[in-house]
Write a structure and sequence with these properties.
With about 40 residues, the protein is mainly beta. The chain has no helices and four strands.
Length: about 40
């Protein structure tokens, strides 16, 4: 999982990417290509 300060550029890398907020953190998840995972922080 990548840890980035900003996830805006990562969300456009694959069309299945979803921006999810869990417990005060922002994640990008992708159920098709598991390697596109990121956390803001």
């Amino acid at each position: 999982m990548k840890i980035r300060g900003s996830l805006k550029s990562l969300i456009g890398r694959h069309r299945e990417n979803q921006l999810v907020r869990r417990k005060g953190r922002v994640y990008i998840i992708n159920k098709v290509q598991k390697r596109y995972k990121a956390k803001q922080g």
